[in-house]
Design brief:
Rossmann fold, single chain, 13 helices, 33% helix, alpha/beta, nine-stranded mixed beta sheet, 2 domains, elongated, 379 residues
Length: 379
């Protein structure tokens, strides 16, 4: 039986990231002036190439798409033949084109809508199709917190392959969005936009039970490392404290930074300035460097980010840095076994602040995050 797959590319998605704009919503012209290049078509092509390598029955698919840069060009570059054009976008494209295309998609009884973009694109699509069409996102935006995205192009291709092979099911997924204007000012303001239909896969989307061996943890760690590198380059006046553990050690080595596997190492402007610092050394550095972020990863099976193996990050250190300046990284496979993040700082008032924060965004790929609940060990 022929499957009908919608295919949509938001060609401007992700353009603001490399030039430090933390998103593209409302700043496309500014991004272009700063030299931003379109990345979504490349991500879409990568996904299709991997998908075609995996799925040998691709001729049984009818691809329903938009003319030109919003889908047609990449599908033809991938040498796919059964292509139906249902919408002709304006040039340059806009969010309105995405919405108008989705109104047409609704008329064609799609089995799945595959799109390339970020949370803004997911939000625009969901605002039109609701729960009528299941969604699968190829990650290409600056912010991707919603439950529809694979963690990489390779993972997304594998998910699509497994879905068409009837190994994965459709279920409820969150559509989240981050206020980009506030994000550019250093504020996190995430809201639940709605509950869509998406593919349920445990390790590389949000929840579930199987692992895709074709997408290794090292591949995901490389994507996380690229994100951390971008954070460091976009915040040259900020001191980064690299925490302990294997994931952070991998990131440091990938970025050619000297690193202590079980210690804390300060990095400034992409260079390790000291190794294995203690609490007193950190506090001294915090007097010199006015801006600081700490990069942590869950330690042990219980998911501790503070209070186990990194006591150098004392309550005084954490209070000086600020809870909002903690970056947490983890591979999806590790996070699958870490339902909550735990803290045990030894300071009841500080532990209460973590509990009141309720959750952290954990970085699980390049500009991909997942919400994970915080639990204090003392409350």
């Amino acid at each position: 039986m022929v499957k009908r797959i919608g295919f949509l590319i938001n060609p401007i998605a992700g353009m603001g990231g490399r030039v430090g704009l933390k998103g593209t919503d409302g700043v496309v012209k500014e991004a272009k002036k700063l030299g931003a290049k379109s990345v979504a078509p490349f991500k879409a092509k990568q996904t299709l190439q991997e998908f075609l390598r995996l799925y040998k029955e691709s001729e049984e698919i009818e691809w329903v798409t938009c003319k030109g840069v919003m889908g047609e060009h990449i599908l033809k570059e991938a040498k796919l033949k059964s292509i139906s054009i249902i919408y002709n976008p304006n040039i340059p494209t806009s969010a309105e084109d995405t919405k108008l295309a989705c109104k047409e998609f609704k008329k064609h009884y799609l089995d799945l809508l595959v799109f390339c973009g970020g949370d803004g694109t997911a939000r625009d699509i969901f605002s039109i199709v609701g729960t009528q069409i299941p969604l699968l996102g190829i990650p290409s935006g600056v912010k991707m917190h919603s439950g529809v995205f694979g963690v990489s192009t390779k993972a997304t291709a594998k998910i699509l392959h497994e879905f068409l092979s009837k190994n994965l099911i459709i279920g409820d997924v969150d559509i989240l969005d981050l206020d980009e204007d506030k994000y550019r000012k250093g504020e996190w303001n995430i809201r639940l936009f709605g509950i869509a239909k998406g593919i349920i896969e445990p390790t590389y989307i949000q929840v579930g039970k199987s692992t895709f061996e074709s997408v290794s943890d090292d591949s995901v760690k490389e994507e996380i490392a690229e994100y951390i590198e971008e954070e460091m380059q976009n915040n040259e006046d900020t001191l980064f404290l690299m925490g302990s553990g294997g994931t952070i050690d991998f990131i440091a080595r990938y970025l050619h930074l000297e690193n202590t596997l079980l210690g804390i190492d300060p990095v400034y402007q992409m260079k390790t300035i000291q190794k294995d610092v203690n609490e007193a050394m950190i506090l001294k550095l915090l007097k010199k460097y006015k801006k600081c972020k700490v990069i942590l990863s869950p330690i042990g099976a219980q998911g501790f980010i503070l209070g186990r193996g990194n006591l150098q990050l004392s309550p005084q250190v954490i209070k000086s840095i600020g809870l909002e300046n903690i970056l947490i990284v983890s591979t999806p496979s590790k996070l699958k076994h870490t339902p909550v993040l735990r803290v045990d700082t030894g300071d009841a008032a500080l532990d209460k602040q973590f509990k009141e924060k309720d959750y952290y965004m954990v970085i699980i790929g390049y500009r991909l995050s997942r919400i994970v609940k915080i639990q204090s060990n003392n409350l």
